DNA sequence: TGATTATATAAGTGGAAACGAATATATTTC
DNA sequence: GAAATATATTCGTTTCCACTTATATAATCA
């Protein structure tokens, strides 16, 4: 019997599901790209070098999980990050793994 | 040819490896527990309800990845978080998934 | 309307990860 | 030194993921 603050099972389940969702090289790359601006599928294909079908499946998975949202524009489909939590999470990762690429909160000193 | 700030492949690879490492319910639970204080294996078994062999395998995996470190104390083995980045990451998750459990940076107003 | 472009979905396959069962190793106690 | 406790490791099985190939749908254009 410990008096530890146990995290509820369902929270753990959601969190690990969220992590699994972004713990994939291609999906993470896509999220990093969409952090900059919304993009359509063929832009993402070009930027990542992924196969069309494969990328489409990953996009679809992230959309179903509420991470991404999509909007049809003509024959293209624009994808963007739907859940700001994931934008934050990816930013946190960038700060850990490539601090020099994160322009972070501007210190209000530089131009 | 886009002028997007592409994240280098090896950074993506490290990041997604790190995410996969914690994107598992049991491993994430362990990390949350160890966020409080170092614990020995049978404490973790009791707190998580996991099978001994299974938990041991996960601990071993996280130790090999540099996430955890262990110190033998008598016949027990104490585990703790070795890499502060992961502590931060897990804290970030807590803020997203259970904000009410995070005592965060004290606002210096409450007792 | 037929061809082309953009994207999605389905089906099959290969490989990795997780788990349980059994066993091994180290430490303590008697 | 034998039993008990604490933890690690090995092995075999199953389950889950990702990827490719092929096909479907929708929009545009000729």
TrEMBL record, chains A, B:
It comes from the Bacteria. Keywords: DNA-binding, Transcription, Transcription regulation. SMART domains: HTH_ARSR. One of its GO terms (molecular function) is DNA-binding transcription factor activity. Residues 7-101 form the HTH arsR-type domain. The keyword Phosphoprotein does not apply. PROSITE patterns: HTH_ARSR_2. NCBIfam families: HTH_metalloreg (NF033788). PANTHER family: ARSENICAL RESISTANCE OPERON REPRESSOR ARSR-RELATED. This is ArsR family transcriptional regulator. It comes from Mariprofundus micogutta.
